[in-house]
């Protein structure tokens, strides 16, 4: 079982890109999550940057296919809402996942001002799955 796990999850470049797209679509994490956690999994900065660019390219391609299929859907937008995390101090520091999530949430708070480059970025930040 571990052999199969290592086959798909041991190397960053062998990870299933569709699972990474699912993380980008999650309004809590978006692309910043990959920027934060990939360096923890892989020390090679060039490989990490390449993987983030590859996931972004796949995401843009997927978005463009849907935008071409339904041009009116690309024009719709919803109000941006952020999930609130008020009790960061209550997270148990001993739990490594919780500590990583706390670091990620702090990074996210620091990067509140985000440059929107194209329509895909705009929709990514305005997406609210409950309003969809």
UniProtKB/TrEMBL annotation:
Protein's recorded name: hAT-like transposase RNase-H fold domain-containing protein
SUPFAM superfamilies (UniProt xref): Ribonuclease H-like
Q: Outline the extent of the hAT-like transposase RNase-H fold domain.
A: 1-66
PANTHER family, per the entry: BED FINGER-RELATED (PTHR23272), ZINC FINGER BED DOMAIN-CONTAINING PROTEIN RICESLEEPER 1-LIKE (PTHR23272:SF161)
Q: Listed GO molecular functions?
A: DNA binding
């Amino acid at each position: 079982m571990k052999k199969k796990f290592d086959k798909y999850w041991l190397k960053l470049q062998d990870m299933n890109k569709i699972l990474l797209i699912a993380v980008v679509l999650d309004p809590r994490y978006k692309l910043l999550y990959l920027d934060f956690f990939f360096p923890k999994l892989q020390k090679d900065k060039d490989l990490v940057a390449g993987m983030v660019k590859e996931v972004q390219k796949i995401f843009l391609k997927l978005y463009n296919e849907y935008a071409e299929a339904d041009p009116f859907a690309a024009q719709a937008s919803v109000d941006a809402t952020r999930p609130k995390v008020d009790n960061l101090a209550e997270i148990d520091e001993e739990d490594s996942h919780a500590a990583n999530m706390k670091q990620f949430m702090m990074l996210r708070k620091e990067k509140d001002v985000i440059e929107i480059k194209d329509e895909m970025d705009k929709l990514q930040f305005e997406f609210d799955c409950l309003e969809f």
